[in-house]
What we know:
mainly alpha; about 75% helix
Amino acid sequence: MALKLIILLVFFAVTIAIGLYCRKHATDVNGFVLGGRSVGPWLTAFAYGTTYFSAVIFVGYAGQFGWKYGLASTWIGLGNALIGSLLAWVVLGRRTRVMTHRLGSATMPDFFGKRYDSKGLKLVASVIIFIFLIPYTASLYNGLSRLFEMAFGVDYAICVIVMAVLTGIYVIAGGYMATAINDFIQGIIMLFGIIAVIATVLHGKGGFMTAVNSLAAVSDPATSAQPGVFASFFGPDPLSLLGVVILTSLGTWGLPQMVQKFYSIKSEQAIAKGTIISTVFAIVISSGCYFLGGFSRLFSTPDTVASTGFDALIPTMLANLPDILIGVVIVLVLSASMSTLSSLVMVSSSTLTLDFLKDNIVKNMKERTQLLIIRSLIVVFIIISVIIAIVQYQSNITFIAQLMGISWGTLAGAFLAPFLYGLYMKRTGKAAIWFCFLFSTVLMTANLFFRPYFPSLLQSPINCGAFAMIVGLIAVPLLSTFTKAPQKEVVEEAFAAYEEKVTVSVKTAIED
Protein backbone atom coordinates (compact mmCIF):
# COMPACT_ATOMS: atom_id res chain seq x y z
CA MET A 1 0.00 0.00 0.00
CA ALA A 2 2.84 2.40 0.87
CA LEU A 3 4.52 1.77 -2.48
CA LYS A 4 1.32 2.41 -4.42
CA LEU A 5 0.69 5.63 -2.48
CA ILE A 6 4.23 6.89 -3.11
CA ILE A 7 3.88 6.32 -6.86
CA LEU A 8 0.55 8.12 -6.82
CA LEU A 9 1.77 11.11 -4.81
CA VAL A 10 4.82 11.60 -7.05
CA PHE A 11 2.54 11.59 -10.08
CA PHE A 12 0.22 14.17 -8.51
CA ALA A 13 3.13 16.43 -7.53
CA VAL A 14 4.65 16.42 -11.02
CA THR A 15 1.26 17.09 -12.63
CA ILE A 16 0.49 20.12 -10.49
CA ALA A 17 4.05 21.47 -10.78
CA ILE A 18 3.77 21.46 -14.58
CA GLY A 19 0.47 23.34 -14.38
CA LEU A 20 2.01 26.05 -12.21
CA TYR A 21 5.12 26.25 -14.42
CA CYS A 22 3.00 26.82 -17.54
CA ARG A 23 1.16 29.84 -16.16
CA LYS A 24 3.39 32.10 -18.26
CA HIS A 25 1.93 30.55 -21.44
CA ALA A 26 -1.66 31.21 -20.35
CA THR A 27 -1.77 35.00 -20.12
CA ASP A 28 -4.06 35.51 -23.14
CA VAL A 29 -6.82 33.55 -24.89
CA ASN A 30 -4.60 32.33 -27.74
CA GLY A 31 -2.00 31.05 -25.29
CA PHE A 32 -4.51 29.51 -22.90
CA VAL A 33 -6.62 27.74 -25.54
CA LEU A 34 -4.06 26.94 -28.28
CA GLY A 35 -0.64 27.31 -26.67
CA GLY A 36 0.09 30.20 -29.04
CA ARG A 37 -0.16 27.83 -32.05
CA SER A 38 3.48 26.91 -31.43
CA VAL A 39 3.29 23.37 -30.05
CA GLY A 40 5.86 20.91 -31.43
CA PRO A 41 5.31 17.42 -32.89
CA TRP A 42 5.98 15.33 -29.78
CA LEU A 43 3.68 17.32 -27.52
CA THR A 44 0.93 17.52 -30.16
CA ALA A 45 1.13 13.82 -31.04
CA PHE A 46 1.04 12.71 -27.41
CA ALA A 47 -1.75 15.19 -26.64
CA TYR A 48 -3.74 13.71 -29.53
CA GLY A 49 -3.08 10.13 -28.40
CA THR A 50 -3.71 10.59 -24.69
CA THR A 51 -6.93 12.50 -25.42
CA TYR A 52 -7.98 9.64 -27.71
CA PHE A 53 -7.36 6.81 -25.24
CA SER A 54 -8.71 7.11 -21.72
CA ALA A 55 -10.05 4.89 -18.95
CA VAL A 56 -13.10 4.44 -21.16
CA ILE A 57 -10.92 2.52 -23.61
CA PHE A 58 -8.79 0.67 -21.07
CA VAL A 59 -11.57 -0.33 -18.67
CA GLY A 60 -14.87 0.02 -20.53
CA TYR A 61 -14.32 -0.71 -24.20
CA ALA A 62 -11.41 -3.16 -23.82
CA GLY A 63 -13.42 -5.17 -21.32
CA GLN A 64 -16.75 -5.14 -23.12
CA PHE A 65 -15.50 -5.70 -26.66
CA GLY A 66 -12.74 -8.08 -25.61
CA TRP A 67 -15.46 -10.20 -24.01
CA LYS A 68 -17.76 -9.97 -27.04
CA TYR A 69 -15.25 -10.46 -29.84
CA GLY A 70 -12.24 -12.14 -28.22
CA LEU A 71 -8.86 -11.53 -29.87
CA ALA A 72 -10.66 -10.07 -32.91
CA SER A 73 -11.21 -6.94 -30.80
CA THR A 74 -7.56 -6.12 -31.61
CA TRP A 75 -8.90 -4.92 -34.99
CA ILE A 76 -10.48 -2.00 -33.13
CA GLY A 77 -7.07 -0.90 -31.91
CA LEU A 78 -5.54 -1.25 -35.37
CA GLY A 79 -8.43 0.74 -36.83
CA ASN A 80 -7.84 3.44 -34.23
CA ALA A 81 -4.17 3.60 -35.23
CA LEU A 82 -4.56 3.55 -39.01
CA ILE A 83 -7.83 5.47 -39.44
CA GLY A 84 -8.19 7.44 -36.22
CA SER A 85 -4.54 8.53 -36.07
CA LEU A 86 -2.58 8.04 -39.32
CA LEU A 87 -5.32 9.03 -41.80
CA ALA A 88 -6.65 11.74 -39.49
CA TRP A 89 -3.26 13.46 -39.46
CA VAL A 90 -2.75 13.01 -43.20
CA VAL A 91 -6.24 14.13 -44.26
CA LEU A 92 -7.02 16.77 -41.62
CA GLY A 93 -3.75 17.89 -40.04
CA ARG A 94 -2.26 20.36 -42.52
CA ARG A 95 -5.54 21.68 -43.93
CA THR A 96 -6.99 22.24 -40.47
CA ARG A 97 -3.93 24.18 -39.31
CA VAL A 98 -3.82 26.30 -42.47
CA MET A 99 -7.51 27.17 -42.82
CA THR A 100 -8.22 27.77 -39.12
CA HIS A 101 -5.19 30.07 -38.96
CA ARG A 102 -6.45 31.98 -42.00
CA LEU A 103 -9.95 32.31 -40.53
CA GLY A 104 -8.64 33.10 -37.04
CA SER A 105 -10.63 30.22 -35.54
CA ALA A 106 -9.77 28.89 -32.09
CA THR A 107 -12.63 26.39 -31.78
CA MET A 108 -14.65 24.07 -34.01
CA PRO A 109 -17.92 26.07 -33.71
CA ASP A 110 -16.02 29.23 -34.66
CA PHE A 111 -14.72 27.39 -37.73
CA PHE A 112 -18.28 26.48 -38.73
CA GLY A 113 -19.45 30.06 -38.19
CA LYS A 114 -16.70 31.61 -40.34
CA ARG A 115 -16.38 28.88 -42.96
CA TYR A 116 -20.13 28.80 -43.66
CA ASP A 117 -20.86 32.43 -42.74
CA SER A 118 -23.48 31.40 -40.21
CA LYS A 119 -23.81 32.65 -36.65
CA GLY A 120 -26.58 30.11 -36.07
CA LEU A 121 -24.32 27.15 -36.91
CA LYS A 122 -21.70 28.49 -34.53
CA LEU A 123 -24.16 28.83 -31.64
CA VAL A 124 -25.83 25.45 -32.15
CA ALA A 125 -22.48 23.67 -32.49
CA SER A 126 -21.28 25.18 -29.19
CA VAL A 127 -24.44 23.98 -27.42
CA ILE A 128 -24.11 20.45 -28.86
CA ILE A 129 -20.48 20.27 -27.69
CA PHE A 130 -21.22 21.47 -24.18
CA ILE A 131 -24.16 19.10 -23.66
CA PHE A 132 -22.77 15.93 -25.21
CA LEU A 133 -19.25 16.12 -23.79
CA ILE A 134 -20.69 15.78 -20.29
CA PRO A 135 -21.70 12.07 -20.55
CA TYR A 136 -18.27 11.26 -21.97
CA THR A 137 -16.65 12.99 -19.01
CA ALA A 138 -18.80 11.04 -16.57
CA SER A 139 -17.62 7.82 -18.18
CA LEU A 140 -13.98 8.76 -17.49
CA TYR A 141 -14.58 8.86 -13.76
CA ASN A 142 -16.41 5.55 -13.84
CA GLY A 143 -13.56 3.66 -15.45
CA LEU A 144 -10.97 5.10 -13.10
CA SER A 145 -12.96 4.42 -9.96
CA ARG A 146 -13.11 0.67 -10.64
CA LEU A 147 -9.33 0.42 -10.46
CA PHE A 148 -9.00 2.70 -7.44
CA GLU A 149 -11.47 0.57 -5.53
CA MET A 150 -9.51 -2.55 -6.48
CA ALA A 151 -6.13 -1.11 -5.47
CA PHE A 152 -6.96 1.06 -2.46
CA GLY A 153 -10.50 0.22 -1.40
CA VAL A 154 -11.33 3.92 -1.73
CA ASP A 155 -14.92 5.07 -2.08
CA TYR A 156 -16.01 5.95 -5.63
CA ALA A 157 -17.03 9.52 -4.78
CA ILE A 158 -13.60 10.26 -3.30
CA CYS A 159 -11.87 8.95 -6.46
CA VAL A 160 -14.04 11.15 -8.65
CA ILE A 161 -13.51 14.29 -6.59
CA VAL A 162 -9.72 13.86 -6.27
CA MET A 163 -9.28 13.31 -10.00
CA ALA A 164 -11.51 16.28 -10.86
CA VAL A 165 -9.74 18.66 -8.46
CA LEU A 166 -6.24 17.72 -9.65
CA THR A 167 -7.19 18.07 -13.31
CA GLY A 168 -8.90 21.37 -12.65
CA ILE A 169 -5.82 22.80 -10.89
CA TYR A 170 -3.32 22.22 -13.67
CA VAL A 171 -5.71 23.10 -16.51
CA ILE A 172 -6.87 26.34 -14.90
CA ALA A 173 -3.30 27.32 -14.03
CA GLY A 174 -1.46 26.46 -17.26
CA GLY A 175 -4.07 26.09 -19.99
CA TYR A 176 -3.32 24.13 -23.15
CA MET A 177 0.45 24.12 -22.71
CA ALA A 178 0.16 22.53 -19.25
CA THR A 179 -2.22 19.98 -20.73
CA ALA A 180 0.17 19.19 -23.60
CA ILE A 181 3.25 18.75 -21.38
CA ASN A 182 1.33 16.62 -18.90
CA ASP A 183 -0.07 14.59 -21.79
CA PHE A 184 3.48 13.89 -22.97
CA ILE A 185 4.57 12.60 -19.55
CA GLN A 186 1.34 10.69 -19.09
CA GLY A 187 1.69 9.18 -22.55
CA ILE A 188 5.13 7.79 -21.74
CA ILE A 189 3.68 6.20 -18.61
CA MET A 190 0.89 4.68 -20.69
CA LEU A 191 3.33 3.21 -23.23
CA PHE A 192 5.52 1.43 -20.71
CA GLY A 193 2.58 0.52 -18.49
CA ILE A 194 0.48 -1.28 -21.10
CA ILE A 195 3.46 -3.33 -22.32
CA ALA A 196 4.33 -4.40 -18.77
CA VAL A 197 0.73 -5.28 -17.93
CA ILE A 198 0.18 -7.40 -21.07
CA ALA A 199 3.43 -9.30 -20.53
CA THR A 200 2.61 -10.00 -16.88
CA VAL A 201 -1.00 -11.05 -17.49
CA LEU A 202 -0.06 -13.46 -20.29
CA HIS A 203 2.82 -14.86 -18.24
CA GLY A 204 0.31 -15.66 -15.52
CA LYS A 205 -1.62 -17.78 -18.01
CA GLY A 206 1.42 -19.75 -19.18
CA GLY A 207 2.56 -17.43 -21.98
CA PHE A 208 1.05 -16.18 -25.22
CA MET A 209 0.45 -19.49 -27.05
CA THR A 210 -0.91 -21.23 -23.96
CA ALA A 211 -3.29 -18.33 -23.33
CA VAL A 212 -4.48 -18.37 -26.96
CA ASN A 213 -5.08 -22.13 -26.83
CA SER A 214 -7.02 -21.73 -23.59
CA LEU A 215 -9.12 -18.99 -25.17
CA ALA A 216 -9.82 -21.18 -28.21
CA ALA A 217 -11.25 -23.81 -25.88
CA VAL A 218 -13.76 -21.34 -24.39
CA SER A 219 -17.33 -21.71 -25.65
CA ASP A 220 -20.39 -19.55 -25.10
CA PRO A 221 -23.55 -20.84 -26.85
CA ALA A 222 -25.31 -17.57 -26.09
CA THR A 223 -22.78 -15.75 -28.27
CA SER A 224 -21.77 -18.29 -30.94
CA ALA A 225 -21.85 -22.04 -31.52
CA GLN A 226 -18.63 -21.93 -33.56
CA PRO A 227 -15.71 -23.66 -31.76
CA GLY A 228 -12.69 -21.46 -31.00
CA VAL A 229 -14.54 -18.33 -32.13
CA PHE A 230 -12.98 -16.09 -29.47
CA ALA A 231 -9.47 -16.83 -30.76
CA SER A 232 -10.48 -16.45 -34.42
CA PHE A 233 -9.57 -13.74 -36.93
CA PHE A 234 -12.89 -11.85 -37.04
CA GLY A 235 -14.67 -13.12 -33.92
CA PRO A 236 -18.33 -14.09 -33.50
CA ASP A 237 -19.94 -10.92 -34.92
CA PRO A 238 -17.86 -9.21 -37.66
CA LEU A 239 -20.60 -6.71 -38.63
CA SER A 240 -20.98 -5.28 -35.13
CA LEU A 241 -17.20 -5.31 -34.80
CA LEU A 242 -17.01 -3.17 -37.94
CA GLY A 243 -19.43 -0.68 -36.36
CA VAL A 244 -17.15 -0.31 -33.35
CA VAL A 245 -14.12 0.20 -35.61
CA ILE A 246 -15.95 2.91 -37.59
CA LEU A 247 -17.18 4.83 -34.56
CA THR A 248 -13.98 4.70 -32.54
CA SER A 249 -11.69 5.32 -35.53
CA LEU A 250 -13.42 7.53 -38.08
CA GLY A 251 -15.39 9.21 -35.30
CA THR A 252 -12.32 11.03 -34.02
CA TRP A 253 -12.31 13.12 -37.21
CA GLY A 254 -15.40 14.92 -35.94
CA LEU A 255 -14.61 15.22 -32.24
CA PRO A 256 -13.72 18.81 -31.24
CA GLN A 257 -11.31 17.73 -28.49
CA MET A 258 -9.33 15.76 -31.09
CA VAL A 259 -9.46 18.07 -34.10
CA GLN A 260 -8.46 21.14 -32.10
CA LYS A 261 -5.05 19.54 -31.53
CA PHE A 262 -4.31 20.35 -35.18
CA TYR A 263 -5.06 24.05 -34.61
CA SER A 264 -1.94 24.48 -32.47
CA ILE A 265 0.69 22.68 -34.60
CA LYS A 266 3.84 24.74 -35.02
CA SER A 267 5.12 23.86 -38.50
CA GLU A 268 5.06 21.55 -41.53
CA GLN A 269 7.84 19.44 -40.05
CA ALA A 270 5.81 19.10 -36.86
CA ILE A 271 2.90 17.66 -38.86
CA ALA A 272 5.09 15.05 -40.56
CA LYS A 273 6.74 13.94 -37.31
CA GLY A 274 3.50 14.12 -35.37
CA THR A 275 1.80 11.79 -37.85
CA ILE A 276 4.37 9.05 -37.24
CA ILE A 277 4.55 9.53 -33.47
CA SER A 278 0.78 9.56 -33.05
CA THR A 279 0.32 6.42 -35.16
CA VAL A 280 2.96 4.43 -33.27
CA PHE A 281 1.48 5.57 -29.97
CA ALA A 282 -1.98 4.42 -31.06
CA ILE A 283 -0.72 1.03 -32.25
CA VAL A 284 0.86 0.31 -28.87
CA ILE A 285 -1.84 1.75 -26.59
CA SER A 286 -5.10 0.99 -28.39
CA SER A 287 -4.13 -2.37 -29.90
CA GLY A 288 -2.56 -3.33 -26.58
CA CYS A 289 -5.72 -2.49 -24.61
CA TYR A 290 -8.06 -4.43 -26.89
CA PHE A 291 -5.60 -7.31 -27.22
CA LEU A 292 -5.50 -7.55 -23.41
CA GLY A 293 -9.30 -7.38 -23.22
CA GLY A 294 -9.53 -10.25 -25.70
CA PHE A 295 -8.33 -12.63 -22.96
CA SER A 296 -10.98 -11.50 -20.45
CA ARG A 297 -12.92 -14.79 -20.77
CA LEU A 298 -9.99 -16.57 -19.13
CA PHE A 299 -10.59 -14.57 -15.95
CA SER A 300 -14.41 -14.32 -15.68
CA THR A 301 -17.52 -16.38 -16.40
CA PRO A 302 -20.79 -15.30 -18.03
CA ASP A 303 -22.52 -15.47 -14.64
CA THR A 304 -19.91 -13.16 -13.13
CA VAL A 305 -20.28 -10.67 -15.97
CA ALA A 306 -24.06 -10.76 -15.60
CA SER A 307 -23.76 -9.75 -11.94
CA THR A 308 -20.82 -7.30 -12.04
CA GLY A 309 -21.02 -5.89 -15.60
CA PHE A 310 -18.43 -5.44 -18.33
CA ASP A 311 -16.66 -2.64 -16.49
CA ALA A 312 -15.37 -5.09 -13.87
CA LEU A 313 -13.62 -7.35 -16.40
CA ILE A 314 -10.29 -5.52 -16.71
CA PRO A 315 -9.99 -4.82 -12.95
CA THR A 316 -10.59 -8.55 -12.36
CA MET A 317 -7.77 -9.42 -14.78
CA LEU A 318 -5.40 -7.08 -12.95
CA ALA A 319 -6.37 -7.86 -9.36
CA ASN A 320 -3.53 -10.34 -8.76
CA LEU A 321 -0.71 -8.32 -10.29
CA PRO A 322 2.34 -7.46 -8.11
CA ASP A 323 1.98 -4.26 -6.06
CA ILE A 324 4.47 -2.36 -8.19
CA LEU A 325 2.47 -3.16 -11.34
CA ILE A 326 -0.81 -2.28 -9.63
CA GLY A 327 0.73 1.11 -8.92
CA VAL A 328 1.81 1.43 -12.55
CA VAL A 329 -1.68 0.48 -13.76
CA ILE A 330 -3.29 3.05 -11.49
CA VAL A 331 -1.00 5.78 -12.79
CA LEU A 332 -1.51 4.51 -16.36
CA VAL A 333 -5.29 4.77 -16.19
CA LEU A 334 -5.14 7.96 -14.15
CA SER A 335 -2.87 9.45 -16.84
CA ALA A 336 -5.22 8.39 -19.61
CA SER A 337 -8.28 9.74 -17.82
CA MET A 338 -6.80 13.05 -16.67
CA SER A 339 -5.37 13.83 -20.11
CA THR A 340 -8.74 13.21 -21.75
CA LEU A 341 -10.62 15.07 -19.02
CA SER A 342 -8.33 18.09 -19.36
CA SER A 343 -8.99 18.23 -23.11
CA LEU A 344 -12.73 17.89 -22.64
CA VAL A 345 -13.04 20.66 -20.06
CA MET A 346 -10.77 22.93 -22.11
CA VAL A 347 -12.79 22.43 -25.29
CA SER A 348 -16.16 22.73 -23.57
CA SER A 349 -15.37 25.87 -21.56
CA SER A 350 -13.54 27.71 -24.37
CA THR A 351 -16.30 26.85 -26.84
CA LEU A 352 -19.08 28.09 -24.57
CA THR A 353 -17.17 31.30 -23.81
CA LEU A 354 -15.84 32.23 -27.23
CA ASP A 355 -18.67 30.92 -29.40
CA PHE A 356 -21.79 31.33 -27.26
CA LEU A 357 -21.28 34.02 -24.61
CA LYS A 358 -18.87 36.36 -26.41
CA ASP A 359 -20.67 38.94 -28.60
CA ASN A 360 -24.02 37.16 -28.04
CA ILE A 361 -24.72 37.30 -24.32
CA VAL A 362 -21.82 39.58 -23.32
CA LYS A 363 -21.00 42.37 -25.79
CA ASN A 364 -17.44 43.68 -26.24
CA MET A 365 -15.97 41.06 -23.92
CA LYS A 366 -12.40 41.97 -23.02
CA GLU A 367 -9.66 39.35 -23.26
CA ARG A 368 -9.10 39.31 -19.53
CA THR A 369 -12.81 38.69 -19.01
CA GLN A 370 -12.73 35.86 -21.58
CA LEU A 371 -9.93 34.14 -19.66
CA LEU A 372 -11.77 34.55 -16.38
CA ILE A 373 -14.98 33.08 -17.81
CA ILE A 374 -13.15 30.17 -19.48
CA ARG A 375 -11.48 29.29 -16.17
CA SER A 376 -14.78 29.65 -14.30
CA LEU A 377 -16.59 27.41 -16.78
CA ILE A 378 -13.88 24.77 -16.38
CA VAL A 379 -14.88 24.62 -12.72
CA VAL A 380 -18.59 24.51 -13.58
CA PHE A 381 -18.10 21.79 -16.19
CA ILE A 382 -16.08 19.64 -13.80
CA ILE A 383 -18.66 20.02 -11.02
CA ILE A 384 -21.54 19.04 -13.33
CA SER A 385 -19.68 16.01 -14.65
CA VAL A 386 -18.76 14.91 -11.11
CA ILE A 387 -22.38 15.10 -9.97
CA ILE A 388 -23.58 13.14 -13.01
CA ALA A 389 -20.85 10.52 -12.53
CA ILE A 390 -21.76 9.94 -8.89
CA VAL A 391 -25.52 9.86 -9.56
CA GLN A 392 -24.99 7.51 -12.51
CA TYR A 393 -22.87 5.17 -10.43
CA GLN A 394 -25.27 5.04 -7.49
CA SER A 395 -28.35 4.52 -9.64
CA ASN A 396 -26.55 2.15 -12.07
CA ILE A 397 -28.25 3.78 -15.05
CA THR A 398 -25.84 2.58 -17.74
CA PHE A 399 -22.25 1.53 -18.28
CA ILE A 400 -19.14 3.11 -19.75
CA ALA A 401 -19.44 2.08 -23.39
CA GLN A 402 -23.02 3.38 -23.62
CA LEU A 403 -22.09 6.78 -22.21
CA MET A 404 -19.15 7.13 -24.54
CA GLY A 405 -21.11 5.76 -27.50
CA ILE A 406 -23.86 8.37 -27.06
CA SER A 407 -21.34 11.21 -26.79
CA TRP A 408 -19.09 10.09 -29.65
CA GLY A 409 -22.02 9.19 -31.87
CA THR A 410 -23.70 12.57 -31.51
CA LEU A 411 -20.57 14.70 -31.88
CA ALA A 412 -18.99 12.69 -34.70
CA GLY A 413 -22.29 12.35 -36.56
CA ALA A 414 -22.95 16.07 -36.30
CA PHE A 415 -19.46 17.40 -37.06
CA LEU A 416 -17.46 14.86 -39.09
CA ALA A 417 -18.94 15.53 -42.54
CA PRO A 418 -19.34 19.33 -42.07
CA PHE A 419 -15.73 19.68 -40.93
CA LEU A 420 -14.18 17.33 -43.50
CA TYR A 421 -16.05 18.72 -46.50
CA GLY A 422 -15.52 22.24 -45.20
CA LEU A 423 -11.77 21.75 -45.61
CA TYR A 424 -11.98 20.17 -49.07
CA MET A 425 -15.21 21.01 -50.91
CA LYS A 426 -16.08 24.60 -51.84
CA ARG A 427 -19.67 23.73 -52.76
CA THR A 428 -20.58 22.58 -49.23
CA GLY A 429 -23.71 24.50 -48.20
CA LYS A 430 -25.35 25.53 -44.94
CA ALA A 431 -28.49 23.44 -45.48
CA ALA A 432 -26.40 20.25 -45.54
CA ILE A 433 -24.62 21.28 -42.34
CA TRP A 434 -27.91 21.96 -40.57
CA PHE A 435 -29.14 18.53 -41.63
CA CYS A 436 -26.08 16.85 -40.08
CA PHE A 437 -26.45 18.76 -36.82
CA LEU A 438 -30.16 17.97 -36.45
CA PHE A 439 -30.11 14.40 -37.74
CA SER A 440 -27.31 13.22 -35.47
CA THR A 441 -28.61 15.00 -32.36
CA VAL A 442 -32.19 13.77 -32.80
CA LEU A 443 -31.11 10.23 -33.74
CA MET A 444 -28.77 9.73 -30.77
CA THR A 445 -31.16 11.36 -28.30
CA ALA A 446 -33.94 9.08 -29.52
CA ASN A 447 -31.58 6.11 -29.21
CA LEU A 448 -30.97 7.04 -25.59
CA PHE A 449 -34.65 7.23 -24.61
CA PHE A 450 -36.41 4.97 -27.13
CA ARG A 451 -33.79 2.31 -27.85
CA PRO A 452 -36.18 -0.72 -27.87
CA TYR A 453 -38.04 0.78 -30.84
CA PHE A 454 -34.93 0.95 -33.04
CA PRO A 455 -33.97 -1.87 -35.46
CA SER A 456 -31.91 -4.48 -33.62
CA LEU A 457 -28.65 -3.46 -35.31
CA LEU A 458 -29.10 0.20 -34.31
CA GLN A 459 -30.12 -0.44 -30.70
CA SER A 460 -26.44 -0.28 -29.83
CA PRO A 461 -25.35 3.39 -29.45
CA ILE A 462 -22.07 2.34 -31.05
CA ASN A 463 -23.73 1.16 -34.26
CA CYS A 464 -26.19 4.04 -34.19
CA GLY A 465 -23.34 6.55 -33.97
CA ALA A 466 -21.52 4.86 -36.85
CA PHE A 467 -24.75 5.03 -38.87
CA ALA A 468 -25.09 8.77 -38.16
CA MET A 469 -21.55 9.40 -39.45
CA ILE A 470 -22.11 7.41 -42.64
CA VAL A 471 -25.39 9.23 -43.34
CA GLY A 472 -23.63 12.56 -42.88
CA LEU A 473 -20.79 11.66 -45.24
CA ILE A 474 -23.33 10.73 -47.94
CA ALA A 475 -25.89 13.46 -47.28
CA VAL A 476 -23.65 16.53 -47.18
CA PRO A 477 -22.35 16.37 -50.79
CA LEU A 478 -25.80 15.33 -52.08
CA LEU A 479 -27.69 18.10 -50.28
CA SER A 480 -25.01 20.64 -51.19
CA THR A 481 -25.54 19.82 -54.85
CA PHE A 482 -29.29 20.51 -54.76
CA THR A 483 -29.47 23.40 -52.28
CA LYS A 484 -28.35 27.03 -52.37
CA ALA A 485 -24.64 27.48 -53.01
CA PRO A 486 -22.57 29.33 -50.41
CA GLN A 487 -21.47 32.91 -51.07
CA LYS A 488 -18.49 32.92 -53.40
CA GLU A 489 -16.64 35.61 -51.45
CA VAL A 490 -16.83 33.63 -48.20
CA VAL A 491 -15.63 30.42 -49.83
CA GLU A 492 -12.77 32.08 -51.71
CA GLU A 493 -11.58 33.79 -48.53
CA ALA A 494 -11.39 30.47 -46.71
CA PHE A 495 -9.72 28.53 -49.52
CA ALA A 496 -7.26 31.33 -50.23
CA ALA A 497 -5.39 29.92 -47.24
CA TYR A 498 -4.17 27.07 -49.45
CA GLU A 499 -2.83 29.42 -52.13
CA GLU A 500 -0.49 31.43 -49.92
CA LYS A 501 3.17 31.16 -50.94
CA VAL A 502 5.85 30.00 -48.50
CA THR A 503 9.60 29.53 -48.81
CA VAL A 504 11.05 26.10 -48.04
CA SER A 505 14.54 24.59 -48.06
CA VAL A 506 15.78 22.57 -51.05
CA LYS A 507 15.62 19.36 -49.03
CA THR A 508 11.83 19.80 -49.13
CA ALA A 509 11.46 21.07 -52.70
CA ILE A 510 13.99 21.53 -55.55
CA GLU A 511 14.04 24.99 -57.09
CA ASP A 512 12.68 25.25 -60.67
